[in-house]
Amino acid sequence: MLSEQTPSTEVRAEGRTEAGAEAQPVTAGPIDDGAVTIVYSDEFLLHDTGWGHPERPDRLRAIVAALQTAPFADRLRWHSPQLVPASDAPIDPLTQALRRAHEPDYIHHVRLLANRGGGQLEVDTPISARSYEVARLAVQAWLDGMDEAIATGQPVFVAARPPGHHALRHRGMGFCLFANAAIAALTALEAGQAQRVAIVDWDVHHGNGTEAIVRDHPQIAYCSIHQSPAYPGTGRPGVADRDYQLLNLPVPPGADGSTYQALVEAQLLPFLRNFDPDLLIISAGYDANRDDPLAQIHLQPEDYGWLTRSLLGISRRMVLGLEGGYDLNSLARSVYETILACLSS
Ligand SMILES: [Zn+2]
């Protein structure tokens, strides 16, 4: 069902670990065959948040089922991320990547809590015995997706959990353990794979963790469209936004696709054109759906299609990684529309 990693991807992964390496030419990757790569592993189901928690394994089961039965299923290329066994090196490449965004003490804390069988990382963020390992694999999945998008110049979708955009340098929160999007951006820059990375966060909640980690980095722009007021209470536009590297677009409860479309055309796309990114990282949460139980925005699944097409007009070197989205039906339909847009535009 899931195909193995291609040898050419392994070569690119080696290139990334060489800090300060020359930017990899896009032509170094495989020839584009019109397919979209989905990065996924059944291991992501093993992060157990307990009965009744909205951020649950069934979210990924719903997405995978929708994609495997889609009319375009034969145009999807499945890639399964792997944790590289620890080497003799003092710090393995994945831990190096984690430390670009997180304090070593925090990473150690997550590991210890998992090793003790799990517990509450925060009041709303339970973890289980396998969660540390699974969260590391999720980071690897985002890095693999980033490598693939850079190598092929085509969008890649990462269906991984746990999500990451609320995770701060020194603590997890809001169902998030490690800051996947920020880690991918910092790693691409460190390896010279990109020069200007834009992170677009369309999850209905503000990505407070991502913003806090990347906001002072001169080569990273961060933009979020989110409901306000809502969790976590951050993301208000500020005077510092005028440096064109930070754009927070709060929308009120009850807003629908027309509100989003107006903001995207009037503010988001001009912001991105001005920054001129050579890599787009999308924090793709689907909890702005009308049917989502955690927010009050009224997007339809089709809205994620035009949103994706709009952003592909900025750059096709795009990695989309799953953040929130808690109504299984609208989550699966929205990811479907996202992938359809990637295939058809
Ligand atoms: Zn969210």
Automatic annotation (TrEMBL):
InterPro entries: HDACs (IPR000286), His_deacetylse_dom (IPR023801), His_deacetylse_dom_sf (IPR037138), Ureohydrolase_dom_sf (IPR023696). It comes from the Bacteria. Pfam families: Hist_deacetyl. Residues 53-339 form the Histone deacetylase domain. Residues 1-29 are annotated as: Disordered. PANTHER family: HISTONE DEACETYLASE HDAC1 (PTHR10625:SF10), HISTONE DEACETYLASE HDAC1-RELATED (PTHR10625). Belongs to the histone deacetylase family. This is Histone deacetylase. It comes from Limnothrix redekei LRLZ20PSL1. The lineage of its organism: Bacteria, Bacillati, Cyanobacteriota, Cyanophyceae, Pseudanabaenales.
